[in-house]
Amino acid sequence: MFKVRNAKLTDANAIYNIWAAGWKYAYAKILSQEFLAHYVNDTIVEEYIKRFPKTLREETKKGKIFLVLCSNNKVVGFVYGGLPSLQKYKCDCELDTMYLNTEYIGMGVGKLLFQQFAKRLKARGASTLGLWCFSDNDSIGFYRKMGGVIIDYQRNTKIENVLVAYIKFDIDEVLKK
Fold this sequence. Notes:
The protein is of the alpha+beta class. The protein is built from 6 helices and 7 strands; from the N terminus they run E-H-H-H-E-E-E-H-E-H-E-E-H. It has a 7-stranded mixed beta sheet, sandwiched between helices. Strand 6 (149-156) and strand 7 form a beta hairpin. The mean pLDDT is 96.
């Protein structure tokens, strides 16, 4: 049985270990091993865990939503986002990050987590959602199945000049999937 709930301070360890494993899994064929080793390592994970109380407090004050997906009270995924970073795409809100424990990929729980995030955004009055995704990332297929449409491509100069896609969603369409 899967349950989606607001993130708690005690979730930090699970969240950032899922994040690290997710980066290594999803981007192994997109980013260099050197970049991944520098960006995703035990020291970075520990820093994020240590900062999580402040991050959670400050970001939720700004209106961000931080949800976790649990299976038998164990965190197996998370999603985080809120206000858009750029106004040019005319999205009411933006998903900043979403990762699942790699053992749960392909089980349909990503859909549950994504829809619960969209549902919370809709309750706040949002009708559109956007997100950035590496253009070579397999998750683009998931986002398209959820109703996403790629509306722009850009080079991310901070992350190995990789091509990223901006994907826009109608929240009502996401909730119908």
